[in-house]
Structure formats: C-alpha cells, structure tokens
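A common beginner's mistake is to predict each chain separately and then try to dock the pieces by hand. The better habit, illustrated here, is to supply every component at once so that their relative placement is modeled jointly.
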Amino acid sequence: MNYTLLTPEIIVCCTALLVLVADLFIAQEGKNVKNARKLLGWIAIAGLIAGMFAVYNTPDGLAFGNRSFVSDAFSRYFKYLFLGIGILVIVSSMDYLADQTTHHGEYYFVLLLVIMGTMFMASAGELISLYVSLEMLSVGSYVLVAYLRTRQGIEGGIKYLLFGAFCSAVLLYGIGIIYGLTGTTEIKGIGEFLSQGDKGCALPLGLAFILAGFGFKIACIPFHFWVPEAYEGAPTPITAFLASASKAASFAVFMRVFIEGFSGIKQEWTMALIVLCILTMAIGNLSAIPQANIKRLLAYSSIGHAGYLLIGLIIGTANGLSAVMFYLLVYALATLGIFMVIAIISKRTGTDEIEGYEGMSKRSPFLSLCMLICLASLAGLPPLAGFMGKFYLFAYAVQAGYVYLAVIGFIFSTISVYYYFRILKSMYFMEAKDESIISFSPLLRVVLILVIVGLFLIGILPQSFISSAIESVPKWY
Amino acid sequence: MDFPILSWMIFIPLIGGMFILCTPKEMEKTVKGLALVFSFIPLVLAGMVYVNFNPKIADLQFVEKMLWIPAFNIHYHVGLDGLSISIFLLTALLTFLSILISCNITKRVKEYFILFLVLETGMLGVFVAMDLFLFYIFWEVVLLPMYFLIGVWGGARRRYAAIKFVLYTVIGSLVMLIGILCVYFTSTPHTMDIIELSKTCSFAREFQNIMFFLFFIGFAVKVPIWPFHTWLPDAHVEAPTAASVILAGILLKMGIYGFLRVSFPIFPDAAIYFAYPFAVLGVINIIYGACTAMAQNDLKKMIAYSSISHMGFCLIAMGALTVTGINGAVIQMFTHGAVTGSLFMLVGVIYDRAHTRNIDEFSGLWHRMPIYTGLMTVAVLASLGLPGLAGFIGEFICLMGSFVSTFSGFKLLAILSTSGVVITAVYLLWMMERVFWRELSPKWEHLIDIDKRELLAIIPLLIIIILIGICPKLLVDLMNVSTTQMIHEIMP
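With all components supplied together, the output reads:
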C-alpha cells in the first residue's frame, strides 16, 4: 500500500470539495458576485497547478499492491496533459459562464471530479478500476453538457447519456467475457494469459464489445452519433474538454488495454481497427464539409482526428504509441485554442454559425490570428505543431509498412484544409455586417498568446516533446 | 565564412514581419518603411553573397549545418551552389521590388506587408534548404501568405481563386511528403539530407520510378505542368499585382528548382527513364500555353498562360539531360522571372490607372503614355525572345540543350517547340498593336504616364534583362560548374 502515489488525485478531489464549500460562503448577489465567482475558478486553477507539482513528485509504483492504480511515466504524461487542459478550460469557463448561470460552485466541482476521473483512467491498470474511472468521466460529462439547460444542451446531454449508458453496458459485458476467459481483470495478467495461446471462442466477442465501449469515448465511426449534438449543445469550454481531455483519456485506456493486454492477439483486431480508422477519417472529414455551425464542424473534424490517432494504435509499436501521445498533445493544444476563441466570440455575438464570423478579422484581429494559427495547426501546415504531429504519426505508419493508411490520412488532411479554410475565409475575406469591436480580458489574451507560442514552439523545436513522449511509453513488449 | 549569411537573409524578413506586427495599424507610413527596409537588407546581403560566391566550386557554399530534430535525423542544412544562386538572388530582388510597387495599397496595409515578408522567408528558404524536411517546411510556409494575398487583396473572384490555389498546392505537397517519408525510411542510414541522398544513396530502379512520380506531382502543380495548370490563370488574374509578380517570378520556379535539386539527383535512373514523357509534357506546355494565351482578352491571363508556355522550355531542356540543357533551364528560370515579373508590374501599373485589363477596351495608349509604352515594348520583346534581350538567351540555350541531347527524337521535340516561340511573338505583338498602337480612344484621355516609384521598381528588372541579353556569360558562369557535375553524376 502506497497511498502517496495518489497525491495528485487527492489534491484535485480536495480542491473540488473546497470549491463546493467555498460556494456556500461567497456572495450570491450584489456587486461582488462576479469577483466571488471568479474566486471559485481561481481556487480550481490553484488546485490543478498544485496537482501538476504533485504529479512531478510522484514516483513509479502501485498504490494498492495490485494493478488497479499504476503510477508510471505513461500515466504521468497524461496527467500533465489533463491538468493543463483543465486549467485552460477553467480560464475559458470563467469568462464564458460569468453571467450565464447561478450555479458556479457545482460547475467547477463537477469539472474537477471529471478531471480526476481522467487522471484515474490514465493510471488504471485493471479493468474494474478502468471502468469505474471511465464512468466517473462519463457521468460528470453528461451533467456538464446539459449544464446551461438550453434546448440544445439538454438534447445533447440526453443523447450523450443514452448512448453512453448503452456503450458502457456493452463495455462492461466485454470486460465480463474477457474476465471469464482469462480469469483476471489485470490488464497485464490478461496479456500474459493471451500470449500463451489458449484463447477460447468468445474472445472476438469480448474484443468487439470492449472496442465498442472505447470507440464511443474516442468518437470513432460508427459510435459517433452523440458527438455533433453534444459538442454543439455543451457550453463551449466543456466542448473543448470533451474534444481534448476526454478523447485523450480514452486513448490512454485504449492503448493500455489493446497494447498491454491484447498485443498478443494483434492480428485479431488490427483489421477491425484499420476499417474503423479509414471509415472514421472518411466520414468525419467529409461530414465536416457542409456544416454551417462552427462547433458541429469541429465536432466532425474531431472525429476525423480520432481516425488519424487510430493509425498509431494500428502500428502498435512503441514508436506508434509515442506518436499518438505526441499527437494528442498538439491536437489538444490547438483544439483548446480554437474553442477558447469560439467561447469568447459566441458569448459576445451570441452565435456559433460560421456566418457570424464574417469580418471577424476587423472586429478582433487578435482573435482571428489565434484562430488562423490554431486552424492551420489542426490542418497540419508547417511550421506549426500540428504538422509535426501528423508528420510523426504518418512517418511511423510508412515505416511500419502502412503506406496506404498514410496516403489516406494525407488525402483527408487535404479535405480538412478545405473546411478549416472555410472558417478563415469567413473571418478574413468577408465583410462584417456588424463592425463592433470584440473586447475581452487580458487574462484570456495572455493565455491565448501562450497557446500560440506553444504551437510554434512544438512545431519548430519538437525534439524535447518527442523525447518526453518516447520516454513515457511503457515497456509493454 | 563564419557569418551565417544565408540564415540572416532568410530570417530577416520574418523579424521584420514581427516588427510590423507590433506597429499600430494607423501608422501606415512606418509599416511601409519597415517593409522596405526589411526587404532591402536581404537584398544587400544578396549582393554580398554574389560577390563572395566562387563559381569555380561545384559543391555547396555558405554552408550551415546543425542537428535539428535528432528523432528523424533532420538537420538545419542550408547552402548555395550554381543551381540555386541565380534564382536565390532574383528572389531577394523581386521581393524588394514587389514591396516597392505595392506601396500604393490602402486596404489593410499592415497585414499585407507582414504576409509579404513571411512569403519572402519561405521563398528564400526553399532555394537554400538542403534537407528534405526543411525544404518541405519552407515550401509550405509560402502557402498561407499567398492564400491571403490572393483572397483578401485580389479581384472579384478572389475567394475561389485562393482556395483553388491552396487545394492544388496542398494536394501536391502532401503527395511529395509521402515521397519524402518513403525516401527517408528506404535510405541507409536514414537521412533526409538532399546532398547525401544524391551522392551516396542508390535506390532500386522501381522504387526510384515511384518516388520520382510522387515528387513529380508535388513539383508539377507548382510549375505548373499541363494538366495540373488550371489553378494558375485563376490565381494570376485575381491576385494583386505584387502577388502576381511573385507568383510568376518565383513560385513557379520553385517547381523547376525542385526537379533540379531533388528529383533528378536523387533518382537519376528514373530521370533517364522519364526523360521522354518529361520533354513531351514540356512541348505540350509550350504549345498549349501559347495557343491559349492567344485567345485571351485579359492581359494578366495572357501573361499567365505565356508563363505556362515558357516553363515548357525548362521542362524539355531538363528532359534532355545535357549540361547545356540544365544550364538552359536554370537560365530560363532566371530570365523568365525577370521578364514576367516586369510584365506583371507593367500590367499592374495600367490596371491601377484604367481599372481594366481587357485588351479590347484599350486603344492607342502610346499617345498618352510614351514612357510606359517604351518599357512595355522592351519587356514584351524580351518575352517573345528577341535576340539581345534576356528571354532569347533562356529559350535559345534550352532549345540548344535539347537539340544536342543524346536521346534520339529530342531534335524533333526541339523543332516542335520553336513553333511556340512563333506563336508567342504573334500574340504578344498583336496585343501591343491593339493596346498601344491604334487611334487613342477618348475614354483614355485622362491616363497619366508611369510615375517615379513605379519606374524605380521596373527599371532594375529591365536593366537585368538587357544586361543578360548582351552578356549571358555573367549568368552561365555562375552555374556551369555545378550543372556539369550534376549531369556527370546522373549520366556517368
């Protein structure tokens, strides 16, 4: 037993409770209410930063003697990512929610618990703890999507809930089958058992069910139907969270289960993943083209990115996994930048339609520039981080002999350039109907500049980030 | 030389762009001044490069090399040799002149000059990058500024033209990127260094053919080679003057340069294998481009198609795989850049005054704009290949290079290509006759002649055109040693 390994999670959990308690004592009315609400956000941010330091000081080890909580370089990499995403999401929320709802304490409370869920997911080395932490993420997300109680929010939340409940039941069933076959829920033990050769005929069924469960969380085809509605209906900072942290956490468990657990039977699932990967890239990117709502467009584009990421899992080597981890980092950074800009703009213009962005380059040159750089990064244009991510991923695909996957990936990247540039076209080439200036707080400006600098930094000097991704890949082979 | 002159040249415009970014947008004069200064410094450095360049050395000069991304053995490796120096110097000159000629813009001045300086960084980088990865980065850096230059400051159909340009180029360059990855993982040891790849690595013949084809797509879109050319007329017609100048003067040459730098040296067997298709595409480019140009009413569109035609000469000359041919291609790159650059500037001058480029609407401009007509005549004559001017040198050496090729049949192709010269003379002189030499129509009474700033931007190019026309040795000597070695390596 070594509970100190749980310090980061304990810190986040305590912060969540602290926020809830603090909410009881702050002003709910009057002229101080805005600052009081911001205070809650600051508490949450302080907790997440403390969590980051705690992650830094956490050694390798097992918290409970078994593998239900594993602390290793892999989990630490993802915890940094989630905590960082959490900070950006909260900064964005502080502005976005300022006068939208009265329940701020609960919002940050649930958000922190969800972040804690993603952290547990990164450390889960055993199917039961994995399932529980996945549910912690999911249930909190259902609440957050519908948090503002708008019509679209509720529609998105319900759809997400129904789909999610169904898929997690399927996942649980799959876990049951695998347990029945192998006699253990520890992923490592499953891997050792499966590599011995005695497999049993129910294995494909179990695999398929687990794949469906994870497919739902990473939003790959055909488990993606909740994505556009949930992304559109959710408060924009939550959309950012779903697109980045939720997806990254799901990829973390996906990698652990399929590479650590199932790599002995790789030939059984590679073909299925290839089909899913190609379909996901195709349908995600093609469906994004006609979208008129920017959040829906990005929802489909995030489906497309899940497709690229699956290539790394198909490669399945340490290189492939490090490429996935690196790609998740650059993808999350650009996505957060975009959704922060969208949150600022939609709060002030009241619309998420791409038409509403016409002439934005005059109304706010800074936000437009941020959007331009983040979109260019997502589209994979050098010298930005997104290009390095794609280069890294597709390079190892070519090396592993999946040239055709790289080719298909590149084709759909080209298509993605088209629809990302549609947003740019609207921002830069069209004339504004309403020429009022969009103003926002210096804090957001600073954070956005940091995001942009990060995108350039990772794009131009990627080596240290690549190395940290490579060093974080566990020896699962 | 210890001073990293090439890096300074590449990145000074970028630094200038950042300075402008920090300038308040109301201070338009400062913005223009900064842009001029930060594009003039690379020009001065270019002069130093020219003076210090030793044309007797075939290998790279001014080399800077350091490890950049160890995970992929990627180096920051830049250098110049005879293949690239001429077009590299022209880039520095043409960008400065383009910035000078666009000092009269009024719309979103700040963004315009930032984009132009970023564009310069990308273009200069392409011509000195000696690592495939670095080459690709600079290649793509050019894309976004051009997209915005066309899309924001362009003509009526600018949005369509801008996205068409982007999609064509992105498709081409992503195909090229796949090629780069395949080359990297096939070479032993894994490397992206263009020089190492061309000197030490020999790939299997079939692999070479496939790779040559992948790179061909990437470069062919930029040249543009028929049938990948359809983005060019749209982009040219819609682009603002200075962007057209850069597009025709430099961007098209990036494609030709790519063939010379990457495809031919790294895949020599494939280069021999594809020599005929290459040259035939060249002939198609020449004749198709010239015939289409003849049918155009829009001045810019006509020159755009004439560019396609002129690029054909480079292709047939490269396909011939002779020293003279490669020399011809490099010279044609340079001379066409200067000639077409000046033509687009001149068209821009008249468009600023008349707000039309329709040839049929003009008539007798000579009466109102004598100096302008004189300059235009020089540029047009250079473009149609009058001996004594630069255009003739390029085309003549190209044709001579293909005529002496060891491959049979190239003589016939060269003879076919000469018909392109004739058609070019027809449409250009016919255009001159219609626009300048008839009765002055009363509609154009108010036109004023070319002003000092515009003169200042155009005269240097015309001086170069005449100088190269009279004394081509200046240019040939720069490259001869490098091209000789290159051909020697391809065809031992």
